[in-house]
Amino acid sequence: MTITTESTLSQPSLPDEYTSIESEVRSYCRGWPTVMDTAQGSWVTDVDGRRYLDFFGGAGALNYGHNNPALKQALIDYLTSDKIVHSLDMATVAKTDFLRTFNDVILAPRKLDYKVQFPGPTGANAVESALKLARKVTGRESIINFTNAFHGMTLGALSVTGNSMKRAGAGIPLVHATPMPYDNYFDGVTEDFHWFERVLDDSGGGLNRPAAVIVETVQGEGGVNVARAEWLQALEQLCRKRDILLIVDDVQMGCGRTGPFFSFEEAGITPDIVTLSKSISGYGLPMALTLFRRDLDVWTPGEHNGTFRGHNPAFITATKALETYWQDSTFSDETLAKGTLMRDLMEKMAANRDGISARGRGMVQGLKFEDADLAGAVCKAAFERGLLAETSGPADEVVKLLPPLTTSEADLTAGLEVLDESISAALG
Ligand SMILES: *Cc1c(COP(=O)(O)O)cnc(C)c1O
């Protein structure tokens, strides 16, 4: 089965502007060399009318699909009535409504007594503010991060990111961060925590007392590495015992990707600081939040500021998303059921072939290829068949799927059939 119906279409291509004007730093348009035009739900259409089923999902920014009708209407209504769009962090009706709804629908029912900070509108900015706050609260410099972590491209966020190519881009030493093995880093041979606990306790261990630990519950960019609930619980206990702050970076796995609103809910842990971005606006509009325990709120006014903190159109769609999807557990239950469907089909694809294994939680699922080059070849074959999926992992050896959570079961099944064909095509 192929999704693209018109067989008479020419090969997709990019206009010259992309090579002659845009910087070499561009990336996604290289793997998907066509001009995207319209998008609705889980489908994107290019300028020639080719349709693509989107299992990339804006890298996690499109959990409710492209141009979600409920969110779009709220946004249109806001814009057509000349409501204020840009207001830095002044008080606005849109902001009041967001704060109230976020508290009533998300924080209060989960008994999370967090203050809400609006950093600049990117995930990296939420991470920067989390690290700054942890350092300010504790008076300590060093941060513990994990192997294969991804936290963003600014210097502080890069310092706690694993990928050596991205780190090299900094051009200066990235300091005050110490990587520890993520869950299952040693394939279960060594209990990963021993190392961390040992060096913390050992006066000869050479580890400065850390301000905080920053962790993803599932490493998205790092290759869909899933931490077990027990591992996260042990990490929380270790932080509590030694008075180290626990930061969960939920930029990609939050907003329902793994089922519950926060990805750490399943493990029953309560981080001291949480970062959210990507799908928090619900519409693909830039927005980020840093959440932290009330008693950690030691900021002085304006100490971490920025021009685009509090983008009102993003507040409007964010509030609408919370009202539409998070008033009860229906949406998260559906996500878990769809995640199981994805996982079952992907386990089958892996079981039929050598050198492929399935991994993931909720609606973030991946296939790891022992031959790393195959993962890229599969994504290329998938694109040719009308399916968008990207690779992740240190060697780009994992095909990572992040379909919008609103994707129908029929589309999920159809997309996974295309993936199956793409693997066969890549294996040749
Ligand atoms: C994407 C991502 C970031 C960075 O977000 P940007 O908006 O790209 O700055 C940080 N942490 C995690 C876990 C992410 O997936």
Automatic annotation (TrEMBL):
It is an enzyme of class 2 (transferase). Pathway: Amine and polyamine biosynthesis; ectoine biosynthesis; L-ectoine from L-aspartate 4-semialdehyde: step 1/3. Its EC number is 2.6.1.76. GO terms for molecular function: diaminobutyrate-2-oxoglutarate transaminase activity; diaminobutyrate-pyruvate transaminase activity; pyridoxal phosphate binding. Transmembrane segments: none annotated. Pfam families: Aminotran_3 (PF00202). GO terms for biological process: ectoine biosynthetic process. Keywords: Aminotransferase, Pyridoxal phosphate, Transferase. Its cofactor is pyridoxal 5'-phosphate. InterPro entries: Aminotrans_3, Aminotrans_3_PPA_site, Dat, Ectoine_EctB, PyrdxlP-dep_Trfase, PyrdxlP-dep_Trfase_major, PyrdxlP-dep_Trfase_small. Belongs to the class-III pyridoxal-phosphate-dependent aminotransferase family. This is Diaminobutyrate--2-oxoglutarate transaminase.
